[in-house]
């Protein structure tokens, strides 16, 4: 089977890391700083280790001093194996690159004891062959991170729409807040099933308990408000290039109310253009 391979290269400071993260968020298997001469053997190895639909991207740049050794021979070898690599080449104007280096106070990898401009000039010369062979050239001079992501996604055919992965997590306040949560909702205002003998042993994974929680008038109103809020927020998160969003719902112990709400959210999430994941962090903690 032919596996898609993207090579990300270009000038230092032009946004290769941002491009790599955009591809990783789209499900690509991404490897950073791989010497070009190792690419054929690397592709041989990943054929057996990855699922058939997984696409591969490698970042190749001047951090590896011999990264362009046998450049043409390497690409020819890949083509003989039935692999047609696509090259995304990133560049920026000298003025923008100089400003970015000034902001980070870094020296250029090709001119550690010289001026940054000397390093930029040297790098442009070294990368000329690779630039000429590029499938896609992106000038990031006037792009912020979100706009650069959109350019990469446009090339992939996603028309600038980033896949938003939404993690739905229930938790108990007695065990602390989830550290990675973006949005946290406290549902301890709802009647607590813990005080109903027949419901206490159950969790929000049980339909009987979940029906009780979701039928409460306050819960019905809360879910309506929550859906309205998410319907408003999610398009704006996408526009800003956000790839992951964790929505945490908490109750006292993380077994009853929060689990019920998360299960209901998963079953009827108000946005279909997301990939949902569920984690009930504390449901087994008694």
Structural overview:
The strands form 2 sheets. A 5-stranded parallel β-sheet has the order 2-3-1-4-5, with helices on one face. It has a 4-stranded parallel β-sheet with strand order 7-8-6-9, with helices on one face. The chain has helices spanning 16-25, 39-49, 71-80, 94-104, 116-126, 128-132, 145-156, 207-215, 217-239, 257-267, and strands spanning 5-10, 29-32, 56-59, 86-91, 136-139, 164-172, 183-186, 244-251, 274-280. The protein folds into 2 domains: 5-156, P-loop containing nucleotide triphosphate hydrolases (Rossmann fold, 3-Layer(aba) Sandwich), CATH 3.40.50; 164-280, no CATH class. The chain is elongated, with a radius of gyration of 25 Å. It contains 10 helices and 9 strands. Helix 1 crosses helix 7 and helix 8 (207-215) packs across helix 10. Helix 2 links the parallel strand 2 and strand 3. The two termini are 49 Å apart. By secondary structure, it is α/β, with parallel strands linked by helices.
Ordered list of secondary-structure elements with their pairings:
Blueprint: E1 5-10, H1 16-25, E2 29-32, H2 39-49, E3 56-59, H3 71-80, E4 86-91, H4 94-104, H5 116-126, H6 128-132, E5 136-139, H7 145-156, E6 164-172, E7 183-186, H8 207-215, H9 217-239, E8 244-251, H10 257-267, E9 274-280
Parallel strand pairs: 1-3, 1-4, 2-3, 4-5, 6-8, 6-9, 7-8
What structural class do helix, strand and pairing data support? alpha/beta
Order of helices and strands: EHEHEHEHHHEHEEHHEHE
Mean pLDDT over the full residue set: 86
Q: How many β-strand runs?
A: 9
The 3D shape can be described as elongated
Task: Just name the CATH architecture of the largest domain.
Answer: 3-Layer(aba) Sandwich
Helical segment count = 10
Q: Indicate the low-confidence ranges by residue numbers.
A: none
Q: Tell me the domain tally.
A: 2
- The share of residues in helices is 25-40%
Strand content: 15-25%
Q: At the fourth CATH level, what is the homologous superfamily of the largest domain?
A: P-loop containing nucleotide triphosphate hydrolases
